[in-house]
């Protein structure tokens, strides 16, 4: 990209609130340099004229690109080989055109070594409440670690709580992680996460469609959520209260045709209430392990293994049943009388437990002889 | 019921493994006394002859009825006004006839003051693993208390763990509770629950289709589960491992056209894994509160109230956001500068939190003036 083009993209990134489909169409038709010139010269009409009126004279492109250079970042545009064309193609869905922000970004300001198109080929969003519980942070870490282990990148919004736990664990496991910001690339938000965002920018990717210096706003959070959803093959809500921004990301994922998953939790926890609502409404799939998410983002035929069966069902036995169970021989069979003797119990107290063990598939009986059922 | 009839029912209750649809048809056609006489005289053919061959000479009716009398119990039959005709009518579903045990009981041995037909008009089954976690027992108690508070009877199987917590809480809340046993009415199983079953028999109802002295067996547990499901408008699985008898009760409830509900829990808990599988498979509805179950068993139009919204969403705010929130006036509006002064923060640190509060619907802005949004 030559300097004039780069300056034009930077100018266009600030000249109106992204995403603007009219601006995108103009750039597509005439290229960024001509588009920028026409806007600067007020040679556009109707809504695009109105959308660019307030800022058309502001040209901080050089300063913005200096900020980006100082951060070691790059300005990504649709001509770049790491532009996530495939992920963003979902914005072509007709239903999205009507939706506020239902368009792809014009450019992305990026800092970090990860290759965006490669990352989005195999990525999941882990999102949730900032007021995460210890349970929520633990489960988020389990999911992030499980995804990274299976070469799935972890995408999130860099916020406190679930987002932070997701990014931190991905970093700790040497996995790829992407933070999509609602502010400029040089505006760490929340400020308590500056160090975390810095680390993500050194080993993963920090992305935003807003030019340097932009502070977050409500609209920007909503627009950002759509990118988190779009760049991910599936969105997993780890914890969410009944009013949660994570529900907005989940709604975007659904609208974009991505799989939406939610993790259940204790019904006594307000931080899981939003997840339970989504599962109960059938707007999210219940997932309990990273492997189930990989099934959604993974290559065709990459199925989650069956859940780990408990290595033994003996946890579920009471003392008498365990005593009776242990009175059965490893090989061969015993009569009830023999079992009673070995268990040190009257025969009458052995029958009920044997029936219960039989019901649980742990023992079986033939011709009055009881034996252990081999572990499946 | 005269003595001969009562003796005949007691004899028929023991003469073959219940439920036996051929025996039921014979009794329906000829009455219990004639049916008993024909079986005793081997004047039956085919499968009914075979099913009653081993026990046709055993007549312990007097002794069995003595046991029942000593317990202060009664033998319920289809002629009784408390026979749960409506609940048992679901066994007429064609798909059930093919299913083992897919038939109503012939008689029910009962101890306790509750009126069975009345109870089943408004009842829910609370079932689950015997190896309940503290969470599972707590949530079971919440559900049992919530059901009882709404005049819904709590039906369960009298086992350790979830069943026990359900019965105990229902008793503690002076609610109606029914324990359906897989053994004779005089055989407390598990033995550690003798006192609990005794208390249920004094204020609620203990039921079984097996004659006195019968010990539980695998088949009897499976047959018992169908009665727990049939006598309840909905079955709620509170906790269940991946192999759990509760799944069998849930399957019966589905087959009988009853609503099946499951309560989610921590994904880190093996005791919730069975619930999560049922919810994920869409074979059970996710429920989090008793009120949602009442909707399933209750009168038409008796809808669960909306979930309690947190009285405040402030739980979800970080310290800075809370500071900014509290810097807004109770009435009227303030500019960002005024808010910054009052919060003791630079303006630049107020904007992000304000945007976040706006996103959460807690504050709103007009012409640069910010105000609190009234609680909905």
From TrEMBL, chains A, B:
Name all DprA winged helix domain ranges.
310-369
Q: Which residues form the Smf/DprA SLOG domain?
A: 75-297
An example GO BP is: DNA-mediated transformation
InterPro entries assigned to the protein according to its UniProt record, in alphabetical order: DprA, DprA_WH, DrpA_SLOG, WH-like_DNA-bd_sf
- Taxonomically, the superkingdom here is Bacteria
Matching NCBIfam families: dprA (TIGR00732)
**Record-stated family:** Belongs to the DprA/Smf family.
UniProt-recorded name of the protein = Putative DNA processing protein DprA
Q: Which organism is it from?
A: Mycolicibacterium duvalii
């Amino acid at each position: 990209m030559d300097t004039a083009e780069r300056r034009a993209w930077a100018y266009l990134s600030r000249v109106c609130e992204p995403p603007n489909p009219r601006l995108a169409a103009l750039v597509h038709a005439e290229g960024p340099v001509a588009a920028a010139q026409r806007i600067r010269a007020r040679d556009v009409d109707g809504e695009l004229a109105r959308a660019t009126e307030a800022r058309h004279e502001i040209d901080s492109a050089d300063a913005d690109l200096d900020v980006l250079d100082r951060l070691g970042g790059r300005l990504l545009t649709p001509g770049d080989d790491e532009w996530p064309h495939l992920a963003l193609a979902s914005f072509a869905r007709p239903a999205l055109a009507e939706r506020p922000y239902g368009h792809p970004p014009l450019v992305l300001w990026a800092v970090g070594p990860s290759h965006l198109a490669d990352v989005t080929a195999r990525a999941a969003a882990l999102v949730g409440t900032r007021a995460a519980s210890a349970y929520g942070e633990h489960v988020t870490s389990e999911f992030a670690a499980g995804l990274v282990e299976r070469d799935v990148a972890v995408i999130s919004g860099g916020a406190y709580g679930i987002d932070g736990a997701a990014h931190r664990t991905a970093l700790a496991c040497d996995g790829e992680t992407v933070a999509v910001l609602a502010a400029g690339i040089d505006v760490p938000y929340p400020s308590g996460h500056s160090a975390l965002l810095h680390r993500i920018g050194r080993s993963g990717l920090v992305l935003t469609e807003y030019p340097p210096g932009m502070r977050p706003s409500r609209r920007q959070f909503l627009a950002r959520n759509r990118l988190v959803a779009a760049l991910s093959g599936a969105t997993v809500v780890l914890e969410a209260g009944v009013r949660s921004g994570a529900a907005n990301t989940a709604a975007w994922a659904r609208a974009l045709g991505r799989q939406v998953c939610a993790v259940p939790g204790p019904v006594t926890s307000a931080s899981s209430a939003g997840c339970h609502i989504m599962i109960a409404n059938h707007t999210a799939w219940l997932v309990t392990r990273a492997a189930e998410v990989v099934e959604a983002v993974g290559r065709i035929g990459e199925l989650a293994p069956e859940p780990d069966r408990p290595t033994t069902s003996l946890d579920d036995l009471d003392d008498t049943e365990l005593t009776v169970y242990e009175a059965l021989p490893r090989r061969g069979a015993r009569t009830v009388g023999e079992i009673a003797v070995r268990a040190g119990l009257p025969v009458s107290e052995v029958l009920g437990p044997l029936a219960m063990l039989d019901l649980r598939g742990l023992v079986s009986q033939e011709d009055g002889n009881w034996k252990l059922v081999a572990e499946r």
